[in-house]
Write a structure and sequence with these properties.
Blueprint (H helix, E strand, L loop, with lengths): L4 H9 L7 E4 L18 E4 L3 E4 L22 E7 L2 H9 L5 E4 L3 E3 L4 E2 L14 H7 L3 E5 L10 E2 L14 E4 L2 E6 L4 E7 L5 H6 L5 E9 L3
Parallel strand pairs: 1-2, 1-5, 5-8, 6-9, 8-10, 12-13
Antiparallel strand pairs: 2-3, 3-4, 6-7, 10-11, 11-12
């Protein structure tokens, strides 16, 4: 059975490590802030100039002046720091972000990422995604495994404009978890959502991938 968006981000939160500086992309990845493991010391960074984002606020906590890069209202944890977007991108480009979790429209079998533009649609630009995939130490993508009409999103080659090449280290979808094998430049299917089979993944994936002999059931 496919996972919900909340379950996908709960699984992604398991990749957090104590002391990490983590950037959460716009959309589904922002939900990861609600699932930071209890007792873990994580510093969530926002491109608009905040280090130390907390979970989304309750109605009583909403402060219209405190927003993330996607213009959603957020909270700040004790010790949070506020700075300019220029300093924020110095942090990203300087390799100080341990992990970024991003959404995607397409991911190729070699780990290329397309997540900012659909041809013919008006867009303002790719934002900080290009900097993040180049500067972060690890890149995780969270997304639905297929698009509308069951069109594959995990493909041999991206047809949409790229954000970065060979940059995705892990892919967490509503159907499975795939981890990049750096030597073979192919994803390894390591986890399946409950009730999902390897054959279903093969049917819904255009890309070539490796099936781990120890493939297991995803838990959140």
């Amino acid at each position: 059975m496919p996972l919900t968006r909340e379950q996908i981000t709960q699984r992604a939160a398991k990749e957090l490590r104590d002391g990490f500086i983590v950037n959460l992309g716009i959309g589904m990845p922002t939900l990861v802030a609600n699932y930071v493991p209890t007792g873990m010391d994580i510093w969530l960074q926002s491109e608009n100039g905040l280090l130390g984002m907390g979970p989304f606020p309750s109605e009583a906590e909403v402060d219209a002046d405190l927003i993330n890069a996607g213009k959603q209202t957020i909270t700040a944890r004790p010790g949070a720091s506020f700075f300019s977007s220029a300093e924020s991108f110095q942090m990203i480009r300087g390799g100080h972000v341990d992990l970024t979790i991003l959404g995607a429209m397409q991911v190729s079998q070699e780990g290329d990422l397309a997540n900012w533009m659909v041809p013919g649609k008006m867009v303002k630009g790719m934002g900080g995604a290009m900097d993040l995939v180049a500067g972060a130490k690890k890149v995780i993508v969270t997304m639905e495994h297929v698009a509308k009409g069951d069109a594959p999103k995990v493909v041999k080659q991206c047809s949409l404009p790229l954000t970065g090449k060979k940059c995705v280290d892990m892919l967490i979808t509503d159907l499975c978890v795939m981890e990049m094998d750096p030597g073979k430049r192919r994803f390894v299917l390591s986890e399946l959502a409950p009730g999902v089979t390897v054959e279903e993944i093969k049917q819904k994936t255009d890309a070539d991938f490796i099936v781990s002999p120890g493939v297991r059931t995803m838990t959140v």
